[in-house]
Write a sequence for this structure.
């Protein structure tokens, strides 16, 4: 059953940035896209880079190691028809960011 886990404060993730967390054993990246938060699997499927360290432009994050692009709102890799990365619901409770896994 899914459960919400507090990960950080809202102020710690300003728009255009991301942070990585271990959430109940899952490596999760939380992205702030123009004030809206999205969470997805933080581990790049190519060679395991942390996508929270990637380059963010709008809703696209480019992997910091070899540049694969992912839409953080869907987990989909650019040019692919299928969703790739698991995504997770994100909640803001006061100033607390919570990820549901
Ligand atoms: S590890 Fe992400 S593109 Fe290679």
């Amino acid at each position: 059953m899914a459960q919400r886990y507090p990960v950080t404060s809202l102020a710690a993730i300003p728009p255009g940035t991301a942070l990585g967390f271990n959430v109940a054993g899952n490596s999760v990246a939380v992205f702030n896209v123009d004030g809206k938060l999205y969470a997805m699997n933080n581990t790049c499927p190519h060679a395991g880079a942390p996508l929270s360290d990637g380059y963010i432009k709008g809703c696209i994050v480019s992997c910091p190691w070899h540049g694969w692009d992912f839409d953080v709102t869907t987990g989909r890799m650019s040019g692919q028809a299928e969703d790739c990365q698991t995504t997770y619901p994100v909640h803001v409770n006061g100033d607390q960011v919570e990820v549901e896994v």
